[in-house]
Write a structure and sequence with these properties.
The complex is a heterodimer. Chain A contains 15 helices and 14 strands. Chain A is α/β, with parallel strands linked by helices. A 7-stranded mixed sheet of chain A has the order 3-2-1-4-7-6-10, with helices on both faces. In chain A, strands 11-12-13 form a 3-stranded antiparallel sheet. In chain A, strands 5-14 form a two-stranded antiparallel ribbon. In chain A, strand 1, helix 1 and strand 2 (33-38) form a beta-alpha-beta unit. By secondary structure, chain B is α/β, with parallel strands linked by helices. Chain B contains 21 helices and 32 strands. The chains are: A alpha/beta, B alpha/beta. The A-B interface holds A 115-117, 119, 142, 144, 234, 236-240, 247, 261, 264-265, 267-269, 271-272, 274-276, 278-279, 282 and B 30, 32, 119, 142, 147-150, 152-153, 156-157, 159, 330-331, 333-334, 336-337, 339-340, 343-350, 604, 612, 615.
Amino acid sequence: MTRVACYSSFNYGYLSRARILAKTLKRLHPDWDLWAMVVDREPADLPGDALAGFDHILEARSLGVPDFAAWMFKHDVVEACTAVKGHMMAWLLDPPDGSPGYDKVIYLDPDIGVFNPLDGILKRLDHGSVVLTPHQTEPNSTELAVIDNEMTSLQYGIFNLGFVAARRDRTGRAFAAWWASMLYRACYDAPERGIFTDQKYCDLVPALFDRVVVERDPGYNVASWNLSRRTLRFGMDGGLRANGSPLKFYHFTKIGKIGDAMTQRYARDNVEVYELVNWYKRELLLQTVPEADRHKWAYGSFSDGTPIPKPARVLYRERRDLKAAFPDPFDTRRGGYLAWLRAETDIMPALADA
Amino acid sequence: MDITTPNRAPGATVRGIKPQQEGAAPVLAGQVAAGPVLYARFPLSPRSLPPRPPAGSTAGADDPRYAVVAAAVDTAYYLGRYRDIAEADMDPCRHYYDAGWKEGRNPNPWFDTGWYLEAYPDIRDAGINPLYHYVVAGKDEGRLAQRPGGLRRPAAEQAVNPLRIAPWPVAPPRAPLLEAEDIGAYLHKALPGARGIVLAASHDRYIDYTGGVQVLIADEQRLFAANHVIYLHISPALARLTLDPEQAEPAELQVVLDGVFIGLVKAPALIQALASLADDLPAPRLFALHSFFGHRSSDLVALAQAMRVRDSVFWVHDYASVCDGYNLMRDKVEYCAGPPPESLACMVCVHGDTRPAYLRRVRQMFESLQFHVLAPSRAALDIWLRAAHLPYRTARVHENAMLEPQPPGPARRRPKLGTAEDPVRVGFVGFTTPQKGWPLFLDLALRCRDTAAYRFYHFASAEALQPMRDLVCVPTKVSASNRMAMVNALAEHAIDLLLVLSPWPETFSYVAYEGFCAGADVVALADSGNVADAVRRHRRGVVLTDAAALDAFFLDGSAVSYVQARAGAGRETGRLRLTGTTATVDLAQDGRSLPATMLTMAPSLSLLVGGQTLLPARRADSWSFRLPPQAGRVRLMSSRVLPEQDGGSRARVGVAVSELLLDGTPVPPGDPRRVAGWRSARDGVQWTDGDAVIDTGGAGTLTVSLRLSRHYLRLAMAEW
């Protein structure tokens, strides 16, 4: 029997979203192993069932990434949660403890809700080794839509890495290893350098690897970036379809003012989209774990509690000498990187003034 | 076949409207419609529409900006919506231009000031009057005058699970709280000469309201009273739009005895009173359940049992027994047909998360009381049978009212029809709510504002009217003493077309019948239940698939051609005869029909292959499944099964299979590949028990043909 793992990567601030993912996925695929890759440290007061929807929980620091503290420090929360995705995929395909790996591994972003079975992806992996879903699968025609969609994809990546799937074969493993290595090298929000976290690299995947399947079924990865060309409809059977294809998963990206603005710009009169977003917002309230909401991201501050400003991370990324001098830049017990920042830069005082 | 569009060349395509195919299957509620026009009594042909003369406004001609804004301000709307401006006797155009837009007021029904400024911060920051900007530039730049999502979006956002709304008190102030003995005393007084007793329940104190159901209850009470039958009516003292949750504190009920409110009683006291009187109460004893909203299901069961009723009657006035979203509007925006509670539609809908528990309580009530189910229309009964999946004793149609058509008046020539001199008169009746179709009516009126071909009317109680330019508002109040007020108002204004645009299957719709009586034809949408059925049955109007078809019907001038043809045939009116609802049901007729005539209704077939559920492609009465390789034994499931009527048992009836094909080759009854779950065959038709096992071997396709019928439960008294 094919062993399937699905994983998501998040910090506790995203727990309510991840719980919705787990709930909606487990409803349809109770036989899959669902893994939580938690890029955080567990809050002391976290209720025992907070992650009950997941079968397995792995913290990022247990992944075995070399020089973990130094590497983690280079990333803000979004970058960090994406930076671990490649290592986790490789880990699930071939666990380092020698236990049998999963035959098929699927990654889903925590802000995804699954609505119909993903069996089609497993089928794709019977023959293909890697499956990707593009942001857009149909060209846009209006200037505004081209700017918002095609031009944005050129800058941030053709494929949306809220989803990726790989098979445990030579190519699947090679993809996971390459992806992990690229993310170890630089998983940054730096489109001016041609990098956007874990996503932009994957533009290269169809060129670098064989048997890469570009999944163009409109029922996958429906989100504000393709609503200009997709319409959601409920059938009288109670089913939900996107352009006639059963809606497999919807990516509730940036729920809030910005996301809502893009959603309504392209959903227009497709009221089913608003219904779905309304449902997600209600579900978010239901799935909220207050202890997790109150929790501050473990890698968001120095060991003395001082918040880490982004420029401190960027500087650390760029200067090899700092990495050599402060192999654990979080650590302030003997002054450390924080003391150096205060003495040698204006990064920390500027923040204090603010 | 009653769904043709006569006098049209075969195959001709009217602008935007495909002709209905001759011989096409009748479209029932819940089915996908085949074309934009499902039924039209008279021919439709497009014609050009005359423009509406511009409204003469010369004020502010010296200020071009003001002139632009003033031309777009709807003064009737502004004064109707903002009473302070009307009371201060201010000029609405001047007020909006100077101050109104800064105060977030809307100048007309189609421009949302607040949204425009929020969506386009460049306009907000520039301090430009947003309406001026929209008219002179924004429109051409592709900016939107209103928030996207149409008129249905606010409904979706306001939708809320009824259990999350606190119940609200509805009992009259200082109403006496009665004890069991008080009830006993009241009933004892009524007993002499009584030839029966009815315990009736509904959601409110029917004597004080004049809505559709309340009028029916008042009528049946009077009819029962004329036959010396005691009528004891209960409604909850705390109102809810769902069942009242079971809780320790007893529920309080309002009691109306023989049309007179006598006070409040706690449910246990009433149960006690009825139980202790049970030996003295006259027979027959009947329980009539018109609505259980606000009630506790356990109380209703206990009351009926305490009174030892002979029969219990459940009325399908709405679909509350399918979902507490009682008109089956998912999130209040779209008809959902009451899908399985585990469906995605239910998951997303505000009613979904509490629906399973709600349905369990409804089921307990139906299992305990073995109702005779009465529906006011065939459409309502069909939907109930398909979607409710509840046990019952009998089920039948019993109309609330019947139309007696009057002979048509003389043919009339209307040479100027469709011009400013004789516009087509288009009416809307009632509250401005989505479930009555107001958003569609409003949208249509706005789309037609550039033509003089139509004049739009709104008939409602004064407080429900929403004035706007080019809309004639007619305050009309139907009351117990003047039930004909609406018919008279529609007739007085000579309404040609009454738009009854309910987006859900109305179980009856008085409004449509009021229109018929007043001489109007009715324009209805598919899935409007008895509205569309009544249009077809009485040949009095047009049934259109959806809002786009509605727009096309008016904007391409088809509506004018229709009304012209109708004028030539003479105006038809009618009289409405109320049937007396429960008081005229003969429960001695047990609704039994011969099993041989029972046929499958919408069966909702699916195929279980391993753990995977396959859905079929349907073509007429055939359902085809594409099988995965080497599917082997599969299970043919029919989730909506036809209930058996004898004895109310429904568990073992599935679908009537007339043909079973594997890769196009027949698998006849008796073939070992019909493995299990098959009943005996008759005339080549073999029933499944709802879960039939088929050995498909290595076949690639499985095709099932069913014998279908939409004629079901025909009873003499229920047929017209």
